[in-house]
Amino acid sequence: MGQNDTGATREQTRPRWWVRRGLLGVGALAAVGALAACSGVATDETQAAGAIAKLGPAGDAGTVQSHNAPAMISHAIAHGRPAQPARKDAHRRPGHPKPSSSPTATASGTATATPTGTPTATPSGTPSSPPTATPTGSQSGSDPSGQSPATALSGYTLKYTQEFTGDSLPSGWGEYLGVPGGETSSEADWEPSMCTFSGGEARFMASGIDSCGMHYEAEPQKYGAWFARLQANAEPAGQLFTDIFLLWPDNNQWPPEIDVYEDEGNRSSTVATLWNTVGNACGSSPSSSCLYQYTQTNGGNGGVANTDTAWHTYGVEWTPSGVSWLIDGKVIFSAPASAVKSPAQQPALTMDMALQSENLQGSPGASTTEDTMNVDWVEQFAYNG
Asked: CA-to-CA distance for 35 and 322, rounded, in angstroms?
């Protein structure tokens, strides 16, 4: 466990696939590409495009099987979702370009500690309806990270909280299974057994090239606020497992995508990125350069420096007027809808939250079984606007 600290940044540079494990066993989801909702597309980045917060003190897709099947089935039915969704074709999740500058970035610099749970002033250029700030609830608790989930957030309604107190995959969640896009079966693999639960945490393990990916699909939502209390663990020299917290389109059509936390394996920075909906703006086989001109990110500025190995609360608030990212209660980047280059537009569809760790380097992977990321809790709030 890391000690308390603050900050954050990230960078995405290489293609990945998602293959998501459905509620019952047939819902395959591979992460998508801007190339079309079909499999068999090129893996080269030039051909394709390429995861509340207790805003308190700063704290330093294949075949499937399912855990807790009865509970997951009932949960799906309760939310009007099919217990056995039809298999979806694999989609390509694009490689993310590594820009030298960001066309629509609105960053506020390095995040700083916020002991009282009150975010600092919103930077200029933020959405017209900025984050409504301070969630209420216990500011310290018995949770592994030393901080309990919030119980309220002004302007939002709490819809879901998961503290991972059990010893198996919670109801409503699915795990990835299969080879990530842009890689081969000898380089990386999503393996459900790598997702473990103990000590009040979801633990993202890695062994060889195997790693864990999971997503909450029981309550897809349009607009709202999502937060995760997580800690990325230091890696042995020569390894490169990236940890990610993001929002993914419930219909699996990419883009859009909202990356809340991603470290690309360096554990010292995180970049906030919004891949906007482009429609046919870039044609049927869009290039990275075309897609990027509609993307809002602080990656071109290096993101925000952060001690990823310490516990932090990473969050995003998404409304019709824009998206804002927070770390430990401070807004570190904003993407106003008004700044999106026409004809693209910011997301206006239901999305699911997801968490994953992936080997970006390929063989040999982790020499022994190790823990790449721990998640204490996640929360989802509905937007009241």
From this structure: 25
| Cα–Cα distance measured from residue 364 to residue 338, given in angstroms and rounded to the nearest whole number | 45
Q: Which two tokens stand for residue 245?
A: 């917290």
| Six token digits for residue 254 | 């990419």
Q: How far from 165 is each of 142, 231, 244, CA to CA, in Å?
A: 12, 17, 21
Separation between Cα atoms, residue 324 and residue 155, nearest integer Å: 14
Distance of CA 145 to the CA centre of its chain: 19
Is residue 289 helix, strand or coil? helix
| DSSP for residue 334 | E
Distance of alpha carbon 335 from alpha carbon 313, whole angstroms = 19
Q: Which residues contact 298 (CB under 8 A, 6 or more apart)?
A: 9, 102, 105, 107, 271, 272, 273, 304, 332, 333
214-249: burial string, b at 16+ Cβ within 10 Å, e else: bbbbbbbbebbbbbbbbbbbebeeebebbbbbbbbb
**The two structure tokens encoding residue 55:** 């805003």
Encode the chain (385 residues) as per-residue pLDDT tens digits: 433 333 322 233 233 333 333 333 222 233 333 323 333 333 333 333 333 333 333 333 332 333 332 222 222 222 222 222 222 222 234 333 333 233 333 334 333 333 223 333 333 333 434 444 445 544 445 789 999 999 999 999 999 999 999 999 999 999 999 998 778 999 999 999 999 999 999 999 999 999 999 999 999 999 999 999 999 999 988 899 999 999 999 999 888 999 999 988 889 999 899 999 999 999 888 788 899 999 999 888 778 999 999 999 999 999 999 999 999 999 999 999 999 999 999 999 999 999 999 999 888 899 999 999 999 999 999 999 9
Judged by DSSP in three states, 288 sits in helix
